[in-house]
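Re: beginner question about structure tokens

> Can someone show what the tokenized structure looks like for a real chain? I only ever see the sequence side.

Sure, here's an example I had lying around. Input first:
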Amino acid sequence: MRTGIWSLAWRESRSGRRRLLLYMSAISFGVAALVAIDSFAANVERALREQSRQLVGGDITLAARQGWTPAAESVLEELRQRGATVVKVTTFPSMAVATRNGATRLAQVRAVGDEYPLYGSIATSPPHQWRMLREGRYALVDPGLLLALDARPGDTLALGYARFVIAGSLGNVPGDPGIVSAIGPRIFVHERYLGETRLLQFGSRVDYDALARIASGDPDRIVADLRPRLRDAQMRARTLRQEEADISEGIQLLANFLGVVGIVALLLGGVGVASGVHAWIRSRVATVAILRCVGATSRQVLAMYIAQAVGMGIAGAALGALAGIAVQFALPELLGKLLPVDVQVRVEPAAVGSGIGLGVWIATAFALRPLLALRRVAPLQALRAEQDPAPLGPWWRDPARMAVNALIAGSVVALAATRAERPVEIAAITGMVALALLALNGSAATLTAISRRVSRFDWPYVIRQGMANLHRPGNQTRSVMLSLGFGTFLVSTLYLVQSNLMGQLRRIETEARGNLVFFDVQEDQLSGLDSLIRSAGEEVVSATPLVSMRIASINGQSVSELARDSARSGWGLRREYRSTFRDTLAPTERLIAGRWFRTSSDHGPYEVSLERDIAQSLGVSLGDTIVWDVQGVQVATVVTSVREVNWQRAEPNFFAVFQPAALQRAPKTYVVIARANGDTAVARLQRATVQLYPNVASLDITAVRRVIEGISSRATAAIRFLAIVTLGLSLPVLFAAVSATRRERIREGVLLKTLGATRLQIARILRSEYGALGLLGSLTGMLLSFGGAWLLLSTIFDRAFEPAIGPAMAIAAAMLALTLAIGSWAARDVFRETPMAALRQL
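And the corresponding structure tokens:
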């Protein structure tokens, strides 16, 4: 035995390389998933680094909550004195009216200065039209808005009381992701004409932002130096590094979520490898015995077959990597419009290398467990008809098996660590895999015990024989249960997540009471708008008052004092609230603590009801007092109730609701919800409203739903794509599991034929066995998927879980049918073998 191990392994594998490679191909799908996901994530991260300034729009972004007050202007002047270039961006919603045909559409107007954009350039059609904004009353609009308004360059666009000539359509705009335009199409005009629109009135929803390009120095250090002045001016500042981190975090979250699917797929491939190698070594016992007869030691034999497993694992992982490279080119089509950057797909050597490395590692680790049985093959077995290795005995008495088990467990933890950063996340992923394995192993043990005890002599013979196959020596109950259950678990979990997300969108549409929302309705316009809607034969669903305010103090402590408490939300303390007043709960609310308003006193402190999450972030509870700054007037309140709000409903919802006496005399605007019958009625009502009240903006909720559904359909396509990949992964794994006892099934079937069994009887025996395996395995995987979907929806998507039992059972039935089909296909050799072939092996 002087021949090298690798050379001997190569020679010995000649007769069965195809079969061994088939078993190792179970790992290919997992590697393909990891390579595709990691490569795409790396492509996105690279694009983000290259396009970050164009994406954000500046080195520093500033938001002025109170508008351009003297304090805010002084901050911008300080930046200019430091050598920075500063440009303001004023954003507000407005109804855009094409004067040629009267068509209307809600749009997001952005008024910018000469320096905009600070980074990059803006593509327009016709080209080079951006300069027209500096030359006069011109507007550049999104292409979708031109289609919606049936307008073209050269037409006149009305924004409030101002008129602009459409100079062209927009392409990519630095600092303004294109996905935003899906909800509100963008219109860019020059800031010098902002006053002519007369749209910035009391209560108008306006965002005052500024972008700064730093000539020298560290933006983070500059923002830190300006922090006290920013706080006094009620401004928020974020640097390029912070914006990059936020975007990267979201992308990484998506990549980690998809990566968890890839990890579980890789582990499922490992189960398939273990099943396939188990079948492989059972067919090589005679060869091993002969090698032992000519002087090979058990260690040499084990090393030879480990070398074969490693070699075939490398081949399977390499095939998976090639498939993953091909798949990554399809991901931009599925997810491209959901991403904030333009992604150029390139092959990422690091992702390919890590995918192959993980694949080979998992294939080798899972193959080691069945390969250890080769140590028990004695030279005498070369002369015996029985060609099974000797039993290994309990694993806890075998140090080698204990070491392999520890290696597999450590590999699962290490894989989880590649997709998570915090120990709790690693523990969650590891625990999910461990729970699934324990549940499936427990189901397999239960099925084995039941099949042994419940079989009765009065049952048909074919049923008794099939059930006996589940517990007799050499059964495949555990391997099939693991592979089938894991496959069902993955496919069903992905479907349940998609079903819940889509179902919530559908409920939002069916539960909405109106389909047209009017914003920024002034008090003196409310009765006129109400009459306009009713005279058109449409229904006014609700008219909700809005009052702008801020928190002045809580329990006698000012906001500045409270902000020093890290347990309280600085965002909740300093934000501007748009609150309302009424004496009843809304359909979207549910009282969870305290009581609703009882007093009707015209003197404070008044009663207020807070939404649950804002109450927690502010650190307040029932009986606490809050003083609100309502446009310069101090209003004292006491918290008397806490509400749970369904934010998914397309209706006005509020963090704070006051008793009517508190705010009835405060300056207010209104949000009016109407129900119009059909798209034509909606368009007619929008056109009539903007002609009468140019400052009032309206939103067609049906159009928004269509946009959201279009975005969601892409996410759905990505989830379905993953489900198809997972289903494809289940095929080679199930083949490997079923092949583990293929030789025994052929021998038993031929013997039954020799004793007089018909082809139909043998087929029924096999269907009984695989039917029981498929039924329990698919049902266990389905039950596990309910837990997995709940975990994903509650932790990643922050959504409630509602089990879709019907579709989940349909998936389980499909996996059962797949198991029966694979079992029947794998046993086809039973009908090919002759009785003489079985007699020769006796």
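Each token stands for a local structural state, so reading them left to right follows the chain. The radius of gyration is 34 Å.
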